[in-house]
Design goal:
- The structure is a single chain.
- The protein is α+β, with helices and mostly antiparallel strands and about 70 residues long.
- It has one domain.
- It has three helices and two strands; from the N terminus they run H-H-E-E-H.
- A two-stranded antiparallel ribbon has the order 1-2.
- A hairpin with a 2-residue loop joins strand 1 and strand 2.
- The chain is extended.
- Keywords: Membrane, Transmembrane, Transmembrane helix.
- Pfam families: DUF2905.
């Protein structure tokens, strides 16, 4: 558990440091993301992005446990 928390903290630190470049990636604007904008109201649900991230994390954890 200690190694996992250290690894998670390191990954979050790297993501924070690399955020100016990571924010330019097209994540969050994939096909399947739901965006509704009306006068005085906006709703955004990143369904496509959530599915891609879920698959990538599942593959990574499967590979790590193997």
């Amino acid at each position: 558990m200690q190694r996992f928390l250290i690894l998670l903290g390191t990954l979050l630190l790297l993501a924070g440091l690399l955020w100016p470049w990571l924010s330019r990636l097209p994540w969050g604007r994939l096909p399947g993301d739901i965006a509704i904008e009306r006068e005085g109201f906006s709703f955004y649900f990143p369904l496509g992005t959530s599915l891609v991230v879920s698959v990538l994390l599942s593959l990574l954890l499967w590979w790590w446990r193997r």
